[in-house]
Design a protein that fits this description.
single chain, alpha/beta, Signal recognition particle alu RNA binding heterodimer, srp9/1, 2 domains, 5 helices, elongated
């Protein structure tokens, strides 16, 4: 285990969340699951999603997630953005703005094409401003539209 590991407190959906996350992202696995009784619901777990270790607990309705913490998904291209976005939507996620989507368990994810990061690192502030302004109008990020905003600035 790494020195610092995110610890997530779910209401009662931990098992379903683990199944979704590990099926959605490569380099994922379940490392340890503790059940409440031999055949009872999952109480706690250690798992890896996309190479990142997590610990989690079914803590009850007292706990909830907020957009104050989100998970950033680095996508190689538009096809990867689309694939993750569609997978989240099929699972019942709710899109927000600017590439954010809230999964059915309440966690927020940022599905971001690597090209966006490249464009906003440009030294020309006019180009960066145009890319950010374009991104602010989007729900799912669109690489072609971001590049168009960059080129037209």
């Amino acid at each position: 285990m790494k020195k610092v590991t995110p610890f997530l407190m779910f209401n009662d959906q931990l098992e379903a969340a683990i199944e979704f996350y590990t099926a959605t992202f490569p380099d994922s696995e379940v490392r340890n699951v503790a059940r409440n009784g031999a055949d009872g619901p999952v109480q706690s777990a250690e798992f890896v999603v996309g190479g990142q270790s997590f610990m989690a607990y079914n803590g009850g309705s007292y706990f909830s997630f907020s957009e104050g913490v989100s998970f950033y998904v680095d996508c190689a291209d538009q096809a990867e953005v689309d694939a993750y976005w569609d997978r989240f939507l099929r699972a019942g996620a709710k899109p927000s703005r600017c590439g954010w989507i809230k999964d059915p368990f309440g966690l927020s994810w940022q599905i971001v094409p690597r090209r966006f990061t490249e464009l906003v690192r440009d030294r020309d502030p006019r180009k960066v401003k145009a890319v950010v302004a374009a991104m602010m109008t989007m729900v799912k990020l669109d690489v072609a539209a971001l590049e168009r905003a960059y080129d037209e600035a």
